[in-house]
Amino acid sequence: MNVGISEDNGLFSCSIWRPQGKSYLFFTQFKAEVKGAKIEYAMAYSQAAVGAQNDIPLKQEEFEVTETTVSHREGKFRFELSKLMIVAKTPRDEL
To answer: What does pTM read for this prediction?
Structure first.
């Protein structure tokens, strides 16, 4: 897992992945939730980049993104998840 923050402290990023990429273990479901921020971007991958290969994203119909969660879609998710990436924006207090 890797967590980052932008220079202005407005955006947070979180990447969760399997260190070895593919595995004989599989997910039947998944859900990641953000508290205190709104998701600006999220992507789920069936295979994480290895060597010269790029990340392979899940099809959009396999997962859903709301303002605060990223989760599998029941009946659409094919049980292949190697990496999940989320970028969230914190609310700003205006003076």
So the answer is: 0.84
